[in-house]
Amino acid sequence: MNKLLTISPSPHLHGDASVKKIMYGVIIAMIPAMLASFFYFGIGAVITTLVAVVSALLFEYLIQRFMLKKPSSITDGSAIITGILLAFNLPSNLPVHLVIIGAFVAIAIGKMSFGGLGNNPFNPALVGRVFLLISFPVQMTSWPTPIASRLTYIDAETAATPLAIVKEALKNGEPFSQIIKEIPSYTDMFIGNIGGSLGEISVVFLLIGFVYMLIRKIITWHIPVSMLGTIFIFSGILWLVNPESFADPVFHILTGGAMLGAIFMATDMVTSPMSIKGQIVFGVGIGILTVLIRTFGAYPEGVSFAILIMNAFVPLINTYMKPKRFGEVVK
Amino acid sequence: MLKTFPKGGVHPPETKLSANEAIQVLPIPDSVTIPIAQHIGAPSTPVVKKGDKILVGQLLAKSSGFVSANIHSSVSGTVQKIDNVPDSSGYKRQSVIIKVEGDDWDENIDRSKEVKDDISLSKEEIIKKIFDSGIVGLGGATFPSHVKLSIPKGKTAEILIINGVECEPYLTSDHRLMLERSEELIVGTKILMKALGVGKAIIGIENNKPDAIEKLNKVNDNSSISIEALKVQYPQGGEKQLIKALTNREVPSGGLPIDVGAVVHNVGTALAVYEAIQKNKPLFERIVTLTGKSVSKPANYLVRIGTPISAIIERSGGLPEDTGKVINGGPMMGKAVNFLDAPVTKGTSGITIMPDEESHRGIIKDCIRCARCTQVCPIGLEPYLLMTLTEKSLFERLEKNDVMDCIECGSCSYTCPSDRPLLDYIRLGKVTVSKIIRARRQQ
Fold first, then answer.
1. Among A265, B34, B207, B365, which one is least packed by beta carbons within 10 Å?
2. Which of B244, B327, B384 has the CB atom closest to A12's CB atom?
3. Nearest one of A276, A287, A199 to B382, comparing CA atoms
4. What number is the ipTM of this complex?
């Protein structure tokens, strides 16, 4: 029997998991929320999403082709995710050139400067978004009204987000029980009929994506549940202490980027901890920071900052939060 | 709910192609090559020389220490030479090569089919006999069985676990053994219980073998032996995982099963024990699965030790056209074969033939920190970290991160979406760390 055989160490089998499958799985999970954004914000949402995705892919390609001189990895789907996530974090009336700048910062600075997929400490889409928020605060905080602005883009009719309204009113000393009557109902928040960034508005469609990712085992429940649970409990305690000067916990969960952040951004595997214990600490940290920024900080919205801050703690969390070893000898 | 181990694990496609194939006796080859080291521990010392006439079951090489095992002839004939011959991995091993003449058995071996139930030997005599018969762990690890039965001072055995899990994909030799040799297996279990002086034994079987579970339950006439069905989960056949699944006891890090009062033996070992004690038959043949998706006749064979692997492949229709890799064992923990005429040894539980398209690894990509390796590790290690630490030669941290606890099941490499060779690096790290530990102990 003479035949050239392949020799390699075990295991000789490989499961069906691949980077591409994971990435495209995440993209599929984002489709319901994306379609919802198209429904509520129409043309503006389509333009923003397309520009963000195309420029994210283009920047990644150009950097790999001309600067790193490496084979291109744009087909792995991760740049598409960054593009969609960036768009999810932008208002639908943002001028095209700002979207392109955001995609450039996300891909070039947030991702490729660290060595590409897997090596970036911060969530690239959030790096892009926060860069835009700080550099172009006016454009980044004008929010088209849903449905009414479907057929308009830059000149869309705008309104403040529920979070901004509540923050402003609470600061002016209005009681929460009064404010709540002036903002969209919780049902509207649940289905997405409110002002806000493209992807953050429709809780129900984000949840569909969450369930899909859980079923496909792309992510585990630990980060989203610990993060949302912490937001709920922490804001709930504040609300119980003084129900008139703090927003109620349901409001905090349904508004702003809480759902989007918990489901699609805090769970970014590259920038979240490795052990289950670590993931829970990470989620709790984001939850606490989010409520602190929202209630006591200058910005009405705190999820992006909270996630980026906790991203910075991930190496530390990984060092100290080890999985429980089998047969651990207690010393 | 069926029991299983709680932490980690994967479930590769079971692909038990030969599960319904009854064990066939493989014809005796013209010549056999019997290595003198077929077990973990010291190689044994040959006691025959060129030209000697040999009977089936005759001692060829004597155990050379406590952790070592006797080697017996599987055929009758003439010793042609004692020489260094490549094993299946291509390493040259000292082996006894015997030209086969007829099939004359040592007259002390009871060749009758009748199942002998009464155990007349004492505890000590049983262990002695097991040692004499050259019995080693037949699940693949080939650890000399008498060592496991000799309980160190200060420890007590409380429970015997018979490993019928066969969690490796493809392999079915243990499955067929449990089905076709059930009565003998039960007697073998009783002998092992007597040798250990324990009052309780569990035979653990994954529930993808319901016929074996049913059969054993039917023939089991001893209330202190229980047959337990387990949820299919790899690597449940690992001692530590099996003990955890069946008794919820956790073998401490760096410890042995006996530290939690358990002793684990494979079903193949239990059958070999039966044959040694009741039939006076030393270990010189075993059941081997020959399997693979392109193999024309996947089957289970009773094979004399020393038979060339190629002879089994021929019997099952020859090496398929599209063969890319031949594995000694199953695909998760087996070793790739590079010399097809290498002999079957005591540890050969199966030969798995992989088509070329499944024989190559994917291109290594950067770690995306998905944490799947950490989730599937049955020991709770962090394979991604162990790989990086090995790459960067940070051996002190590697040791602190419990690299020596790795059981090399390969669940991490199996599951990695970036096709990273995690286990390769961990093995490399283990080798260096164990050198460091040894050097430190000598100081």
1. B207
2. B327
3. A276
4. 0.92
